[in-house]
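hiii, so i know i said id send this last week but things got crazy w the move. better late than never?? heres the sequnce for the chain we talked about at the cafe, plus the structure i predicted for it. fair warning i was half asleep when i ran it
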Amino acid sequence: MNRILIIDDDSRNIFALQAVLKAKGFTTLSATSVKDGMAMLRKQPEIEVVLLDMMMPEIDGYEAIQLLRALPGKQSIPIISVTAQAMVGDREKCLEAGANAYISKPINIDVLIGQLKDYLSI
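okay and structure toks below
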């Protein structure tokens, strides 16, 4: 079972992403803070990919990537950065921070599914 963890402080974004991904056959979990997301990763070893909002209030996505990668056994978990701040250089900045991929909002679902297939054993 392909489990995807969505970390986003906006519950509307989580709801929309979960609905679309569920319709495509994916299982999702969600967290509205980086702290909660880290706790889920510790407790749910079957999580295979993280979709990480880069504009979080308490810990931004760049710092969050470092914290997620520091979790035991999670150094290589695929992290896809999700951001509404699609400025020139943002993609490179996310990848330099340690994300595996980058997608901007509004999310093109076909592009996201393509990225997920790169990291999941589908």
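btw The helical segments are 11-23, 34-43, 61-69, 90-96, 109-119. thought thatd interest u
miss u guys!!
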